[in-house]
Amino acid sequence: DSGVTQTPKHLITATGQRVTLRCSPRSGDLSVYWYQQSLDQGLQFLIQYYNGEERAKGNILERFSAQQFPDLHSELNLSSLELGDSALYFCASASGQGGLSSTDTQYFGPGTRLTVL
Amino acid sequence: AQSVTQPDIHITVSEGASLELRCNYSYGATPYLFWYVQSPGQGLQLLLKYFSGDTLVQGIKGFEAEFKRSQSSFNLRKPSVHWSDAAEYFCAVATPGGSYIPTFGRGTSLIVHP
What we know:
The complex is a heterodimer. Chain A is mostly beta strands. Chain A has no helices and 11 strands. Chain A has strands at 5-7, 10-13, 19-24, 31-38, 42-50, 53-57, 64-68, 74-78, 87-94, 107-108, 112-116. In chain A, the strands form 2 sheets. In chain A, strands 2, 4, 5, 6, 9, 10 and 11 form a 7-stranded mixed β-sheet that branches. In chain A, strands 1-3-8-7 form a 4-stranded antiparallel β-sheet, with no helix packed on it. In chain A, a hairpin with a 2-residue loop joins strand 5 and strand 6. Chain A is globular, with a radius of gyration of 14 Å. The N and C termini of chain A lie far apart (31 Å). By secondary structure, chain B is mainly β. Helices cover 0% and strands 51% of the residues of chain B. The A-B interface holds A 2, 4, 33, 42-45, 48, 55-56, 58, 90, 92, 94, 98-102, 104-111 and B 36, 41-46, 49, 51-52, 90, 96-107.
């Protein structure tokens, strides 16, 4: 158990809909990272938040957005869903904001499997 | 930009046999290198990482990896595989001094025969 929790575990929805995925980081971790894992694209970094502020952005679509709240949990919002958005969405947390710290290891949650029909 | 290649999509070994999973990276300098394991239905777990120093890195679950600058490789090894090692293995690279965002390989699926 990594200490990172994600809800829900599974989500089935229809095209055009909007969903929210939730992540609670490990106690004391200030950074939250979101990843998408699909058969087509493999594992891709979407976005990182550190202590409530956006820190780094990867291959995140404009239809997707995220935020990190004062209690450090994070939500990933996916809107106007398409069939191709079906994937496993992972959240990871780390203590620091990245950079040169050699102790900054990411701990991954179990993921949310999104199916768009 | 950095990239990482895992040439083997699937690897099959017998229980008790030795294992080597290949990883090659592309980056101008020495990157940060990682190996993660993903068991069925689970998230990723860090096995080991290389930042600097000794090029032979020891990880959890009896795994080790060796950084070879001349070959741009960071291969994962285990002397004796257990059935519970069957999983997906991901190599990742990150840029030192950057935002520490790893780029992942496509993964190698390890199948263990009894």
